[in-house]
Amino acid sequence: MELGRRSRALVRGALRARSRLRRRRSRWRSLVALSTVVVLAATATLAPAAASSAFAPAAVAGPAVALGDRVVRLSEQAEPDSRAVLLVHGWLSTVLPDADGQRSYARSPFARPVQWRDGSGAPVARGMTASLQQRLEARPGVAVYAFDYSANSAGWVGSTGSADNLAAAIRSIADAVHGPVDVVTHSMGGLALRYALRDAPDIAALIGEVVTVAAPTQGSDIANVAVDIAGAIRATMSTVPVLQNLVLPWIGAVCNKQLAEDARGGCDLPPVIRTGIAALGPAGTSLRAGSAELADLPDWPAGLHVHAIAASAVVAMPLPSGKTGEARLGDGLVAETSALAGAADTTVVTCRRDLPPGVGGVGMILSGQVAAPPFGGACGHDAVFSNLEVVDAVLAALRGPASG
User: Fold this and answer.
1) What is the total count of domains within the chain?
2) Does residue 99 carry a pLDDT above 90?
3) With left for phi above 0 and alpha for psi between -120 and 50, is residue 189 left, alpha or beta?
4) Helix (H, G, I), strand (E, B) or coil at 136
């Protein structure tokens, strides 16, 4: 009995000690949480405010002035009266070569070596890997230029001022070569040219051919998915108000502020997270299918010849019913119909993959063996110029003296 009393006393003592320890821990946790909130709140006050929703971009005050836009001459000096080709990149992209010691997440799509022969995914023959840019530079009588707005490419091209700079670039190039300027665009670059033509209609007379590749004229469904994912994240974090209402909006605001200042190298986060946050920034939300900005997108002016090129990945698999099911993935970001909308002439480069029925076909998809977006391949949005069929389509569309 004495042993029982001692045991009970020891248990009661242990319980009291644990209770005191819990109270101390609770006080420390409260102090840590309060300190964290104060620090983050102070930092968020210095950063652009984005308290209403996670990853909301900072508001821009005053008139739009696109600082950092530039025109780059890529080819050797050409004689006057030559023909010019101007390359215009897209969202979060660039046309500038990598600089030593300069951080850059963006790569020029036009400088990508050709990797695939066509939509089949077969490799090109040896000696056929020259990029679109290199092939254009090798053409006699062609002066190759590029318009780089990478510092501002996280913003919506209809409001950053880059469209005005693009119009000025076309005027200066036409004056330098004493001839027409063919324009080749990738992704959002095609939308930038539309705004440039709306705000400066005089440049239409200076343009020869327009070739758009993967232009999101009707938006991107992936941008809509990004918004849904953000909503799911906010719902998941709803039990942690500090994360939902302060930490996530603060991270998003800081990242989008850095992207607004330098879309080429800003926001030092893993690429997937960086792109996901950017998709909820000014350009990303404007590129959502059905957005107000796309509804207000200017039409191509009458008389301007536009040739649109789309990459379309198709994955087909036999169904138990005997029919063949097809999934049309576009280029993984832009659907075929969106890339072709509004153009006089169109070209579709198809990457078709026929899978075996049943578990075998599903296993190939899950294991990444399917060379189609979003798993990569010859029709992927960012890698589309690595497809020789796309490069040949661009060169064929550039009719006249420039295309020989």
Assistant:
1) 2
2) no
3) alpha
4) helix
